[in-house]
Amino acid sequence: xxxxxxxxxxxSGGLDTSIILKWLQDEYNCEVVTFTADIxxxxxxxxxxxxxxxxxxxxxCVEDLREEFARDFVFPMFRANAVYEGEYMLGTAIARPxxxxxxxxxxxxxxxxxxxxxxxxxxxxxxxxxxxxxxxNPDIRVIAPWREWDLTSRERLIRYAEHHxxxxxxKEDGSAPYSIxxxxxxxxxxxxxxxxxxxxxxxxxxxxxxxxMEAPDEPEELLVGFRSGDAVSINGAEMSPAxxxxxxxxxxxxxxxxxxxxxxxxxxxxxxxxCYETPGGTxxxxxxxxxxxxxxxxxxxxxxxxxxxxxxxxxxxxxxxxPERQAMQQMxxxxxxxxxxxxxxxxxxxxxxxxxxxxxxxxxxxGEIVTFEEDDGAYNQADATGFIRLNAxxxxxxxxxxx
Length: 403
Description:
- It is a single chain.
- The protein is α/β, with parallel strands linked by helices.
- It folds into 2 domains: 6-65 and 90-177, 3-Layer(aba) Sandwich (Rossmann fold), CATH 3.40.50; 182-358, Argininosuccinate synthetase, chain A, domain 2 (Alpha-Beta Complex), CATH 3.90.1260.
- The protein is built from 12 helices and 14 strands.
- The protein has helices spanning 15-27, 46-54, 66-79, 96-109, 125-136, 154-163, 241-254, 279-295, 298-317, 323-335, 367-370, 383-402; strands at 6-10, 31-38, 60-64, 114-116, 142-143, 179-182, 187-190, 220-227, 230-234, 237-238, 259-265, 271-277, 341-348, 351-358.
- The strands form 3 sheets. Strands 3-2-1-4-5 form a 5-stranded parallel β-sheet, sandwiched between helices. It has a 5-stranded antiparallel β-sheet with strand order 10-9-8-13-14.
- Strand 9 (230-234) and strand 10 (237-238) form a beta hairpin.
- 38% of the residues are buried.
């Protein structure tokens, strides 16, 4: 790729991106601008800045995006109840369009010719970063070193880093660490012994949550309040999206909630095994569905449930900025105007149980109609006879023909 004088690199300060920084400088002979996003990964970002400075970077950009991440990406996805393949809560996938947005904006602001990322040629993130970038700037140029260089294994990367004096964290036995991704929504571990789907994950494969077997013997109850489909309070105390998610992560981790050992289908065609922890997200999803059960019309709820796998697939595959995802979001958001109230939950040894739900203004639950006691004529049970016969008509006709 010719004519690259300046490149914005999505930079974490870890093994891959530190090597990429040096590689870009040497292979492209270009100036590198680093962009580091604080999206709640629970890391001190000063070492990333220091490492970039050590490698000669003059423009180092660090942005605190935690509130934007929770408000504009995680919470809209929660309104859709999005879960990929029944288990994965999309913690990595939902962060990529936000990072891509700031890569493109930083490239424009610094007059850079391209952006670069550290996603491998085997994974989903390369697709997510690049689809998002092209949706935001159709003329953007993208450098993906993993699709160009010959550093095709974790061990080769470590040798390269050692050769160039780039410090790398290792496990105590000296082997390469797990590939870890963390943000405000989740933490994931991949690679190493996890590449054998039969191997039981060791303790190092879980970074946030205690084992459910070691969780407290006493359950903990809490109230989660909702407004227009978004969780806005815990035990009556209103919080910002990021603060609320952080608090629920703390509570969920303490009780061993949100662990998932998954083999998923990557967009590029292969299967991948990873260990994911999404404690706060697991609590919000359980509470949100309970709130919807009380306040959503039946057919609206069922329509949302039909749309959810498609929505989750779009997020997983990198189509956050696609017109179809945005159109689906409008419908989903419109459905949430009456999803208001509180849900009472119990956290206990890896489980989230719904104990109750209430909505003073928007509940569609009518105790006078549903009661097993006298309903004072609110519902005429004899009406069910014609309802059943009409709905059985096509099946009775088919049965008559078979006879």
